[in-house]
Amino acid sequence: LSQWKMTLSKICCIGAGYVGGPSCAVIAQKCPDLTVTVVDLSAHRIDQWNSDTLPIFEPRLDEVVKACRGKNLFFSTDIDKGIREAELIFICVNTPTKTFGWGKGRAADLKYIESAARRIAEVAQNSKIVVEKSTVPVKAAESISNILSANVKPGVKYQVLSNPEFLAEGTAITDLLNPDRVLIGGEPTGEGSEAVKALSWIYEHWVPKENIITMNTWSSELSKLAANAFLAQRISSINAMSAICEATGADVDEVAHAVGTDSRIGPKFLKASVGFGGSCFKKDVLNMVYLCECLNLPEVAAYWQQVIDINEYQRRRFTMRIVQSLFNTITNKRITVLGFAFKKNTADTRESAAIHVCKYLLDEGAHVQIYDPKVPRDQIMSDLTMAEITDQPERVPELVTICPNAYEAAEKSHALVICTEWDEFQTLDYQRIYDKMLKPAFIFDGRLLLDHQQLMDIGFKVETIGKRLNR
Ligand code: NAD
What we know:
The chain is 44% helix and 13% strand. The chain is α/β, with parallel strands linked by helices. It has two domains: 3-215, 3-Layer(aba) Sandwich (Rossmann fold), CATH 3.40.50; 309-464, 3-Layer(aba) Sandwich (Rossmann fold), CATH 3.40.50. A six-stranded parallel β-sheet has the order 3-2-1-4-5-6, sandwiched between helices. It has a six-stranded parallel β-sheet with strand order 11-10-9-12-13-14, with helices on both faces. A two-stranded parallel sheet has the order 7-8. Helix 7 (140-150) links the parallel strand 5 (128-132) and strand 6. Helix 10 (217-248) crosses helix 12 (281-294) and helix 13 crosses helix 14. The longest helix has 32 residues, at 217-248. The model has no long low-confidence stretch (mean pLDDT 95).
């Protein structure tokens, strides 16, 4: 057994967010002999993790946290104690996109990673394995190593590993319990390889050994950006196809089915929609563009930039169709928006397509009536009031109504817009909704979620992505 493996009894995670919280809860559940402490600067977030109302909504997260919390899983604001006592420290802090850059790309801002690394160097009294779990540009592990070694105390050693997280919000617990793979990047020889073995030992408690892939640190860092860039690129590819379908009369679902049955391509991530959202895809692709620009690879940068451009084009195109269908004006018209989260089974609204759709609708003077099963009212209002989202933030309270259910949201509305693919939207009583709306009543299905023929039979005029229905 390696020295590291022998000593692993306490681990710490810096950052109690969408990644740090769920991933440590699963580690605690699967490794009952490990003490897992998750620390965060935000006392509010830690209080929520220690309460009955967790700070994030994820199916099954409650049961996993409640099974371990207070036994071998702890949430704390005492960052220094967490660092001091742990033999292995995950860095799971946010890596937001910088708002400024010279080219089109935008680097991930590593200020939180840097301050976490500086804190470790300041506080640590013995050797640590430091695991970079946040998504970072290539060679960030080297920067962490440099910060640690520039401030190292006598007798203390660090091994820095890359271990990017691939969980998807909405399915985080299932993804963590059954990961397609766990990636560990580190030095292949000497103490580096011992540290890799120690981290691998944690995952081996529940992940088959053949699914734990080790590689050099830079490949591991780039693989995370690459995986997200490929996923986003597939969505932009099918969305680009949806524009051709609308122009020709082809049906994007049929095309996706035909393309996806090719075993070389596969069926996943071929669902056309109003566009991708979430905190990661845009951020990571912009990071990739930035990386290519820095490496003087302009053609490669332009290739990945198109993935973002098509996504923005898709949202704009969809909203333009709403305006055009409603006789080219939506000023003072009521529009119902169903779904505000960036995808189903999460309350996360970061980069949600709904924010952008609402912005366009508000800028055209519409009154927007929003219902989402999980996103709290204050979150929606603050997302829509952000200065860079809406031209007239002061008008948001007057123009936006948050409704307790879909039926109230449909009251006296001209059009209903589906922005999130929540299951419950499939089983609503659309006759009841139709009766509440002004006529002609439009539905714009931005997620290809509903039974369009049934809606047309009720009397709705239906527009969706990648199909012509009312012609
Ligand atoms: P998040 O914003 O939900 O959580 C980050 C937490 O880190 C916050 O609570 C913040 O207060 C805390 N923090 C920041 N600096 C700190 C410091 N110096 N000390 C202690 N706490 C600090 O972010 P997230 O969604 O969990 O993402 C974290 C990282 O994981 C990002 O790099 C992201 O790209 C990556 N990632 C996210 C997902 C996802 O689905 N959200 C999936 C895979 C990877």
